[in-house]
Amino acid sequence: MVPFKIDGQSVEGKEGAHILEVALDAGFEIPHLCYNESLKPYGACRLCLVEVTRKGRTRMTTSCNHPVMEGIEVFTRSENVLRARRMIIELLLGMCPGDKLLQEMAADMGVYDVRFKKGDKDCILCGLCARVCDEVVGAHAIQFASRGDRREMVPPFGEATNCIACGACVVACPVNVVGMKDEGDERTIVRWKRTLKMKQCKVCGNYFAPWFQLEKFREKAKLPKDFYDTCYTCRS
Fold first, then answer.
1. Predicted TM-score of the model (pTM)
2. Are residues 97 and 152 in the same domain?
3. What is the DSSP string of the chain?
4. How confident is the model over 131-174, as pLDDT tens digits?
5. Is residue 209 part of a domain?
6. Considering all CA atoms of the chain, what is the largest pairwise distance in Å, rounded to the nearest integer?
7. Which domain holds residue 175?
8. For residue 100, which of 175, 29, 46, 191 has the smallest C-alpha distance?
9. How many other C-beta atoms can be found within 10 angstroms of the C-beta atom of residue 33?
10. Which of 66, 91, 116, 132 supports an S-S bond with 172, CB 3.0-4.6 Å?
11. Are residues 141 and 222 in the same domain?
């Protein structure tokens, strides 16, 4: 365990951990959008900025990918940090003015007006959907495309052929813009326009998951061929 300080309080973090996860576990509130404990840190949204003092030198950095170090001092609510976060949330809100989560976060930071030209996007480009698809699911069905104000999250070449409709991207999205609906024996991931047939449980008769998803998970875990003949409820 590595001892250091956050806002004047002594804390300890596991060696190799990052400041944000230790701070959150210790009860400190640091806003964030692109962080997920199951994924590698990415530093996309920049909202988790903190000031770190080490050996007499202070710099501002994203806490999600900065490792804990013995003896450092972390400041989560200095004036420099709060000013930078207000600017970042204002830029995000300008890009996605209709998003309720961003509106709530901005209000918490005292930001009510956007001084920049407002856009019409709904995706905040945090990359969580692509990262969970790559790192956890292993389907590699989503990626960033283009640059600048044209940057967007899309399936490769506009076709979601690798999508297994597992819904992990739907759960990971912090602003709830991916969307999923189950109708009869089909599941559709709305944003990627991917519709797949679902498997029917041999016991209860309910359709519970897409065939593609179950086969991929079964092969990855080396499960018996009949393992997913029944749904999760009936199996338990």
1. 0.90
2. no
3. -EEEEETTEEEEE-TT-BHHHHHHHTT-----SS--TTS-----S-TTEEEEEETTEEEEEETTSPBP-TT-EEESS-HHHHHHHHHHHHHHHHHSTT-HHHHHHHHHTT-----SPP---------HHHHHIIIII-----EEES-GGG-EEE-GGG--TT-----HHHHH-TT--S-EEEETTEEEETTTTEEEEEEEPTTT--EEEEHHHHHHHHHHHT--TTGGGS-HHHH-
4. 999 999 999 999 999 998 899 999 998 899 999 999 999 999 99
5. yes
6. 66
7. 128-235
8. 175
9. 22
10. 132
11. yes
pLDDT one-digit tens code per residue, 25-65: 999 999 999 999 999 999 999 999 999 999 999 999 999 99
Residues in the chain: 236
Tokens of 102: 């961003």
135 lies in the same domain as 194: yes
Q: Which residue has the tokens 């749904």?
A: 231
For the chain, how many structural domains are there in total? 2
